Amino acid sequence: MSLLPVMVIFGLSFPPVFFEILLALVVFFLLRRILQPTGIYDFVWHPALFNTALYCCLFYLISRLFV
């Protein structure tokens, strides 16, 4: 987790991890669009598990950047 303060937008408070999740989601969708035409999913046993692991790794890397 990060030491950033809670963000209040239009009266709603968001913890810092919320923005890390959103950033990881954007990076995940961009990376997935890049990986699909390359044919890497032909070598993956279970694409849904691969996508989940990819998102978890991206979220971990992004959360480490904000600490």
Automatic annotation (TrEMBL):
It is found in: Cell membrane. It holds the Pfam family DUF1656. The chain crosses the membrane at residues 6-31, 43-62. Keywords: Cell membrane, Membrane, Transmembrane, Transmembrane helix. The keyword Ribonucleoprotein does not apply. GO terms for cellular component: plasma membrane. InterPro entries: DUF1656 (IPR012451). Belongs to the AaeX family. The lineage of its organism: Bacteria, Pseudomonadati, Pseudomonadota, Gammaproteobacteria, Enterobacterales. This is Protein AaeX. The keyword Membrane applies. It comes from Rahnella contaminans. It is a multi-pass membrane protein.
